[in-house]
Design brief:
With 431 residues, this protein is of the alpha/beta class. It has 2 domains: 7-31 and 320-425, Alpha-Beta Complex (Aspartate Aminotransferase, domain 1), CATH 3.90.1150; 43-318, Type I PLP-dependent aspartate aminotransferase-like (Major domain) (Aspartate Aminotransferase, domain 2), CATH 3.40.640. Helices cover 34% and strands 19% of the residues. The chain has a 7-stranded mixed beta sheet with strand order 4-12-11-10-7-5-6, sandwiched between helices. The radius of gyration is 22 Å and the shape is globular.
Length: 431
């Protein structure tokens, strides 16, 4: 068993362990870091708020940072998302969206709408680890053991072009997976409350990038069949795909949007679920109508976390952060091309500042490495020896650099990852 790496401090795009070794943070500390570690502007915002109040409940009250952040989120998210409900993690933001969508239909006047109790999500979907978010997940590796606890979900095939669930390939496919979505909606729309989707990239599934136009088409289908669209932007929001939100790529306006991870720049736990006025209005009424959304978290809208989020977004604006990402995303895309020269790289999936490199035992037949080979873990340990922290998803090596990472640092990330994959996959004895 390898010696655990214990982080002592961070600086910019680097982390330092208790022994003084320096590592490039190639996972953004699990996909959350935006401006680098120990950013003074965010530190200052937290310190200043700490001198005012560390926490006060949002149950029946409000606090200044939570109000200011809600206003800011409404301004930067897709038009129409005018109401904000805070929580503390991506999973809880999804759980909230599911409950809102369910209760929304239960409070409609038309009786037939109250039959809408199910959800549609994609195979290989990951939306968190709470029971509700696991129920709408689609990853057997993570979720199968808990099936007796879960509610029924309808799954549509993921747009996983490299391993197409419909047996197609890019040359002979005209987005048949989208046709399957339409068929499912046509059959089940009268019993479905919402379609839940990770816009453009299914992260935990292995950086599965949807074909261009897929997201917009799903949105149009949801509108046609009068089904709510929930966009889980937890992993892809706040610049990760090269735009502020993944929905922005195709002009999609969801009914509900889930945010977390990068919202505070990687500093403190915070999440938000945004909803349209139409959805919000369904919860309004007289007290005896009991239409209230009875849901709350102790640390909902925590002032310290909201202050960090405001500083994070302020930095994005002042530095034209999103505009500056374009050169980096192009550099990363170009640098990934050389990985196809490695014999055991089967596929590379990339969007913005997120990438997945799928390793295969046999490229011709796309044969995956057996679980016992533990290939992904071996690669990341090799990279760690060279000063890079990355994480695998099975046989898929994930690159999720700190968004503020410089071009030389991105080159360092690519070079170490390339060498680590080459070193491990060329060894004759993988047992």
């Amino acid at each position: 068993m390898e010696k655990p790496l214990i982080v002592d401090r961070g600086e910019g795009s680097y982390l330092y362990d208790v022994e003084g070794n320096r590592y490039l943070d190639g996972t953004s500390s699990l996909w959350v870091n935006v401006h680098g570690h120990v950013r003074e502007e965010i530190n200052r915002a937290i310190r200043e708020q700490l001198d005012r109040v560390a926490h006060s409940t949002l149950l029946g009250l409000a606090n200044v940072p939570s109000v200011l952040l809600a206003k800011k989120l409404v301004e930067i998210t897709p038009p129409g998302l005018n109401k904000v409900f805070y929580s503390d993690s991506g999973a809880t933001s999804v759980e909230i969206a599911l409950k809102i969508a369910y209760q929304y239909w239960q409070q409609q006047e038309r009786e037939e709408y109250r039959a809408r109790r199910k959800f549609i999500s994609l195979t290989e979907a990951y939306h968190g680890d709470t029971i509700g978010s696991v129920s709408v997940g689609g990853m057997d590796l993570f979720h199968s053991k808990f099936k007796p606890l879960l509610f029924e979900t309808i799954h549509a095939p993921a747009p996983y072009c490299y391993r197409c669930p419909l047996g197609k390939n890019k040359d002979n496919c005209s987005m048949d997976c989208l046709k399957e979505v339409e068929n499912i909606l046509d059959r089940h729309h009268r019993e479905v409350a919402a379609f839940l989707i990770e816009p453009l990239v299914q992260g935990a599934a292995g950086m599965v990038v949807a074909p261009e136009g897929y997201l917009a088409a799903v949105s149009k289908l949801c509108k046609r069949y009068n089904i709510l669209l929930i966009a889980d932007e937890v992993a892809v929001g706040f610049g990760r795909t090269g735009k502020m939100f993944a929905c922005d790529h195709e002009g999609v306006r969801p009914d509900l949007m889930c945010l977390a991870k990068g919202i505070t720049g990687g500093y403190l736990p915070l999440a938000a679920t945004l909803a349209t006025d139409v959805i919000f209005d369904a919860f309004m009424g007289e007290i005896e109508d009991f239409k209230t959304f009875y849901h709350g978290h102790t640390y909902t809208g925590n002032p310290l976390a909201c202050s960090a989020a405001l500083a994070n977004l302020d930095l994005m604006e002042k530095t034209d952060f999103i505009g500056g990402l374009q050169e980096k995303t192009a550099f990363l895309a170009n640098g990934l091309k050389r990985f196809l020269n490695l014999e055991h790289v089967g596929d590379i999936r990339h969007l913005g500042m997120m990438a997945g490199i799928e390793l295969v035992e046999d490229r011709t037949g796309k044969s995956p490495y057996p679980p016992g080979a533990n290939i992904g873990h071996r690669v990341i340990l090799e990279a760690r020896k060279k000063g890079l922290i990355i994480r695998p998803l099975g046989n898929i090596i994930v690159l999720m650099p700190v968004l503020s990472m410089s071009l030389p640092q991105l080159e360092e990330l690519l070079s170490i990852t390339f060498d680590a994959i080459q070193t491990v996959t060329e060894r004759t004895d993988l047992t």
